[in-house]
Amino acid sequence: MAVVIRAVRETDRPLYRAPCGACATCDVRTMAVCAALADDEVEALESIMTATHLQANEMLVQEGDPRSKVFTLTSGMLRLSVGLPDGRRQITGFLLPGDYLGLADDEIYTASAEAVGAAALCAFPVRQMDALVERFPKLKDRLHRFTRAALRQARENQLILGRLAPVEKLASFLVLLSDRAVEHRLPASPVSLPMPRADIADYLGLTVETVSRSFTKLRNQGLVAMPDPHSIEICDRRALAAVAGLPPH
Amino acid sequence: MAVVIRAVRETDRPLYRAPCGACATCDVRTMAVCAALADDEVEALESIMTATHLQANEMLVQEGDPRSKVFTLTSGMLRLSVGLPDGRRQITGFLLPGDYLGLADDEIYTASAEAVGAAALCAFPVRQMDALVERFPKLKDRLHRFTRAALRQARENQLILGRLAPVEKLASFLVLLSDRAVEHRLPASPVSLPMPRADIADYLGLTVETVSRSFTKLRNQGLVAMPDPHSIEICDRRALAAVAGLPPH
DNA sequence: CGAGATGTTGAATATAATCAAACAACGTGG
DNA sequence: CCACGTTGTTTGATTATATTCAACATCTCG
Predict the structure, then answer these.
(1) B58-86 pLDDT, tens digit each
(2) A152 in contact with chain B, both atoms CB, cutoff 8 A
(3) At the top level of its lineage, which domain of life is listed (chains A, B) (predicted)?
(4) For chain A, N or C: smaller number of CB within 10 Å?
């Protein structure tokens, strides 16, 4: 009988545990904000966390809505975007597993977030998260560090949007994604592009046609190969970085 | 005699006091990061502070240099910029009195900062500043708040750079400067443009010629008047905001 | 298998960059 | 004080290039 009781408890817990198991065994445990906490401290985070799943193109938060929750993405990809009244859209960034959603905002979300494909994340009510942040200074420091990194990235993006030609923009995007893949212990090539061309266009300030033509140019120059539109092999990473106008790194 | 001694002390102090007098009487006391501290607490900040002055176009920090100091601008204007190897430049923002320089960076400066005209600022060694930030949690919180605001601004800039037409870019720039002037208790119009056209171009991702032509268009549409190139009267703020593709606010 | 969504390519058009020149403002030195 | 060169701004003509409009190809999925 005791065994049965234990089993019930086990099956109840998944409602409030991380998508890939408890935080302790989570894929992004070492890179997300929760890495600031020791294993016994994450339990506090876990206790206010709700695991959430999104379908492709499902909207998670909408620009202008009150900021009621913050999130850590555990799998999949999110696009962050801001829009104009006439429908024009700028994607300000793509979130990968381990990234935090809610760094920039105070009272209301200033950007929308949608899932590119299926995605999973941990949701935290802001009030309870704020309390935890006060309780664990390391957590606050790590959030601040993430915010600074996001600010540097946003400024880098200003350079890309304001001063790079279309092929240069695309090259810099591919190098960025490749570098991020490496941070996630994935191969630098081929790089996976789960988002449609329209998203890349709205991220780089171009039209879909120009994005497509820029891919073709990079392919014709032998810098990349495209087994399919959503998978890009980087043939010459150094030359690609040079096209992007970036130091070889 | 006592009078003479007091006079000597008075003339010695300026070496280590804020440009406009002690912190307690500083112009930006209420808006800069130091507003987080009570009057008796700012003394700690004052004690590690060095007043600095810059001439027009003098470089304060250079992209890539080790981040040894952080600053609060007390008068004048700074331009923040990032550059490409071939000389192309993107200005990521203009700093006004009360703004903090050093929000985004960790070990090294990721952007250069130069004075637009003559400028004055408070300089703080990072090591000592870090210690004060730990000592005064309110100071850390205010810095974090500033960083979040800078991130929101940088994302707004991505929209402007990626999706607005030249006249729209310029209109949004003028509205931004006007709003910031109001925050500084200055009139919303005329707005002062101390920077050259080349800076505006590098901020908006345009050429100087296109900036100039866009000014002419706004003038011909009766939205602004230009008594001289560095002073812009906003004739129809609502229409200007509409051109910028922004909500009327 | 067909229909819609997504991606690529082609031709045209619009538009910002480039090249060039005129003009104004300013400080310097004769 | 004025001529002069310098710098910054504006305007004009031309060119390069990304967008637009259009067609076609490819892929997905009922």
Answers:
(1) 999 999 999 999 999 999 999 999 999 99
(2) yes
(3) Bacteria
(4) N
